[in-house]
Amino acid sequence: MSGTLDPYFWTHLVLQLGANEPAVKHALVAISGLFEQVDELQQEVTAGQRLVHQRQALHHYNAAIRELKTQDLKEKQIVVLVVCLLFICIEALRSDVQSAVRHGRHGIEILKAALPNSGWIKDHLLPIFRRLSVSAFYFSDNDGTFLDMPELWEPAPCSFSTAYDAQHMFDVIIARISHLTLVIAETGQTTDVEQEGTKTQTPYFEDHRAEQAIVKNLLEKWLCMFAQLIAKIHHIDASGKRLSSQEQYQKKKMQVFMLTRYEAARIWIEMAFDGDTPKARDRFLPNFQRVLKQLQWLQSQMPPGVQTATGKQSPQFMFEMGFTAIIFYFVSACPYPEMRLEFLRFMQLFGLPKENLWDRDVLMAAGRKIIEDENGIKLEGRERSLTLPSSPGPLIDLATPGSSISTQPTIHPSDFSSPPADFDDFFDDSSTFVFNKTLKSHPWCSMPWSIQIGPRETSKMNK
């Protein structure tokens, strides 16, 4: 469920609450049934068996909602927030994007009201809502509620003790980038505003420039501390018990995932005030090349016999955002067709079929259409083993010990709406919605859950 991220929510918190809270227990049983159904799509299961599982999941989903409606929710804010997260997971498994977004919106409102009175919620639930808010924003028609997250300016640590410390700081950085980009988009700011023949600056321009500089500094600090953490992990691994090839690979996968997100964040913060031009795309060629090299290295580290994300034995769903959405960003952002096709291949290799609200097959199809439209090529039957551009520039390599690093509200029971009673509607195929939303929100200079800053300047690039 958690992918490469901290599994504490699933391995400890929900299991402990599920033993004492009926709403949590019912929601977990519903998730278990839906998760099995996703796996059954890869197996030979009769329609009758699937229908039985659907009925069971729906029964427990409704039971969880009834439990919340019969309790004093103000006295159990932790339970309400946890169940809200579980409902988001249920809707993600059902591919009901809009219901998941609605639960996310309610959860964030409750979270903001509860935070001042609970350090526990801040430590254990805020980080999850912070990550989910990014996906929810993308599918919410730019509802700023999702990016106006609390605790964005908490002090950065001096070092990382675990990979989860690095993850936590990076999530805060991403939230700050998202919030800054939203504010700039809403105020229509650019680098300079031409007015009556003179250059003027919009209100708060200097404050936003200062925030951009702070975030860029935080990214550099994060990278240095992450490098130190990886070196420490290598030292511990070398002197401690021998890990299996699968365990070693999972650690490497986490490192590459974090570095891929880092490169995307560098582009997003650099482009916060800029528009979309071919020249701007070329400016980030080294970032694209470094990501490709990291993904190529990760592929080379796959131990023999490891099932990839396309294998039947691998998970078919995870609650957190994984490789799929972030690699799709590079497919849409990178202007070079050869590199785009490599990114597309890595999305298929490392992404899971469903990651939170993202569907890999839908993003694969959207990526192909973007390449065909912008590069003027047809991909059907096209050979995918293409040569990458030469001179890839400095590589950020944290995988090898000693390697150098180039730094360049009020709670209402009605908030919890019931799922559809008709079993034929229980699985709402939102693939068309996701596909259209992805293409509509494509402007590359922002995130794949794009904030519309202005009209997109398109230019087809020849092969």
Automatic annotation (TrEMBL):
GO terms for molecular function: DNA binding; metal ion binding. Signal peptide: none annotated. It comes from the Eukaryota. It holds the Pfam family Fungal_trans_2. The keyword Transcription applies. This is C6 zinc finger domain-containing protein. Keywords: DNA-binding, Metal-binding, Nucleus, Transcription, Transcription regulation, Zinc.
